[in-house]
């Protein structure tokens, strides 16, 4: 495996990011970003970037830490948790309405490693396309789908397609999705980015605790162990320039979670992370044209 990009000494002559940079996070389920990228999100926020997230599969009955587990009431429980997390992190949240794997007939065994249905990949692309057009991100962070959860694969496939069609200049990076990536030595590209989150553990834990229905006391040790093994939160750039762009963004962030008013770079900058909850319900565009991503995707061999 090649050496991870240095976050604090970007390569001279790298692409310059606009300020504030815009980052879009693709989260298959509520909680995936908090689980996998909690420290990175806190550090990106500290760098003054504007963050948006799309939670793709908003319909679910899975909530083992809640009395709503196994019922349709789980949808509202998990939506509230997602909003709580977005409020805490300052991320503008878009909520997709697609049914997760458990509602599409998969179980704990069959959801791992199955190829996603072409129709659901197209549906994900339909939700992501308007979000991407609105957010116009400089960086797009998508699940790597380590060990192949079918919903994560669907999100990744759709994001790759939409990014290529709609935002070819956007830096595409893949994040190691937890808990699936725990204990897996998974190399993806030659462009790993290891994010030092040592100063952001408290913020990451607070984000994970926004999801009590997902039994965070079980997931926190897994996250900590993975960070210990990898040395941080690891992403993989689709290209060297994509990895460099993330490195450049993070170089603007302090390595510890100082209070905002202790950060000279932010004082008076107007780039502080947003704290008010902003939730947008992501739905497919009303008028699908013959040339829409959905139409063009129907012939793709997913
Ligand atoms: Zn997930």
TrEMBL record:
It comes from the Bacteria. It holds the Pfam family PIG-L. Residues 252-262 have a biased composition (Low complexity). This is LmbE family N-acetylglucosaminyl deacetylase. InterPro entries: GlcNAc_PI_deacetylase-related, LmbE-like_dom_sf. Residues 293-302 have a biased composition (Basic and acidic residues). The keyword Transcription does not apply. Keywords: Zinc. GO terms for biological process: glycoside metabolic process. Residues 252-302 are annotated as: Disordered. It comes from Micromonospora olivasterospora. The gene is forD.
């Amino acid at each position: 495996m090649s050496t991870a990009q240095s976050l604090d000494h970007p390569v001279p002559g790298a692409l310059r990011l606009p300020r504030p940079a815009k980052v879009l996070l693709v989260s298959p389920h509520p909680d995936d970003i908090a689980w996998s990228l909690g420290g990175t999100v806190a550090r990106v926020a500290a760098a003054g970037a504007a963050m948006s997230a799309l939670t793709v599969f908003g319909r679910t009955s899975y909530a083992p830490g809640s009395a709503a587990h196994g019922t349709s009431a789980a949808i509202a429980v998990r939506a509230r948790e997602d909003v709580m997390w977005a409020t805490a992190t300052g991320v503008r949240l878009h909520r997709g309405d697609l049914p997760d794997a458990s509602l599409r007939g998969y179980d704990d065994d069959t959801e791992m490693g199955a190829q996603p249905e072409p129709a659901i990949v197209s549906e994900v692309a339909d939700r992501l396309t308007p979000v991407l057009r609105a957010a116009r991100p400089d960086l797009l962070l998508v699940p790597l789908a380590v060990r192949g959860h079918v919903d994560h694969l669907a999100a990744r496939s759709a994001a790759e397609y939409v990014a290529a069609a709609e935002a070819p200049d956007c830096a595409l990076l893949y994040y190691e999705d937890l808990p699936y990536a725990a204990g897996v030595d998974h190399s993806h590209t030659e462009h790993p980015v290891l994010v030092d989150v040592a100063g952001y553990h408290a913020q990451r834990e607070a984000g994970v605790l926004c999801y009590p229905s997902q039994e965070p006391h079980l997931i926190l040790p897994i996250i900590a162990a993975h960070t210990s093994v990898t040395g941080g939160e690891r992403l993989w750039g689709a290209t060297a320039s994509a990895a460099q762009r993330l490195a450049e963004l993070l170089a603007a962030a302090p390595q510890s979670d100082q209070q905002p008013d202790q950060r000279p770079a932010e004082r008076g900058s107007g780039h502080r992370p947003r704290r008010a909850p902003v939730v947008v319900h992501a739905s497919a565009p009303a008028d699908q044209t013959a040339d829409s991503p959905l139409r063009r995707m129907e012939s793709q061999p997913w």
